[in-house]
Specification:
Blueprint lengths: L6 E7 L4 H11 L5 E8 L5 H8 L4 E3 L8 H14 L4 E4 L8 H4 L6 E5 L11 H8 L3 E8 L9 E8 L6 H24 L3 E4 L2 E4 L3
Parallel strand pairs: 1-2, 1-4, 2-3, 4-5
Antiparallel strand pairs: 5-6, 6-7, 8-9
Helix pairs in contact: 1-6
Length: 207
Amino acid sequence: MANKVHCKLGVLVSGGGTNLQAIIDCIEAGEINAEICCVISNNAGAYALTRAKKHGIPAVVHENNGFSNRREYDAATLKILNGYDVELVILAGFMRILTEAMVDAFPNAIMNIHPALLPAFPGLHAQKQALEYGVRYSGCTVHFVDSGTDTGPIILQSIVPVEQDDTEDSLSARIQKEEHRTFPAAIRLYAEGRIKVEGRHVRISLS
């Protein structure tokens, strides 16, 4: 199967951008045939913007102020993404729930990573949820975004053991290491045209 050439990514961020950095590193190492066309943040102080600028990637501050609702904000975000001809949207620590304005515009083309093994522990504080439930294993999930909360088709998952003395911080740190490996791997599959969504399920071709 011939690879897609230069898959164009738009990355939405709100914070430090460690997953963004992992993706940048893989692209620059030639491991992903893609280009980050823009990084958009709803937080002007997000360090992810600095990471983007260091690598010559357009960094756009797009704050929530001035919009009467989330749909208006997403419609404006969509205009920015379209201006950069973005094909795949990456949510790398973007702390806003998307509305149908975004989801409908990029069907099965918005990727998120969640620090749990979905469908278990969706939503906020997934690591805390896992510890309180007493699971022996947790991990991270890369999935496509749909209209629900962490309910879209699952692409890849990585498993992390939960240690007896784990805190929310220690478990989060261990999961984050897997995120930095798993998120770029999922983007690479998409860029290579190896992902096919069939209903609620994802089929990945081996070559």
